[in-house]
Amino acid sequence: MERGGFISYGTSEKEIIRMGLPAIRAILLGPDAGAKRRLLLALDWFMDPYYKQDISDIHDGLVELLQRVAVSSDDMDAAEDALGLLGDYEWPPFPILEQNFDHIPDPLKSCARSVISMDRDLD
Description:
single chain, about 120 residues, 7 helices, mainly alpha
């Protein structure tokens, strides 16, 4: 998370999400850290079942993309936010996280382990 800063999103981030995976991918894999953080925050609203947003047409691709952001982002805040969305709204397996665990920034490995093993914590 951005330390000491305020992040918000607006209509433009919602529109990007409604445009679909190519538009979301362009932001999340792009160079603008602020745009990534705003979009990830907007995704929280879309992914939270409470708000009843239908993202079924992009769901599987979005879960894959969030895993890729977590393992490949040079922006640790974006990686942390991606892991947070996966942990809050999705369920394992997360094969991209598992196969690329070594690429997750060290400070986030504990969080990533928890996300990867959520289904095992029920035993």
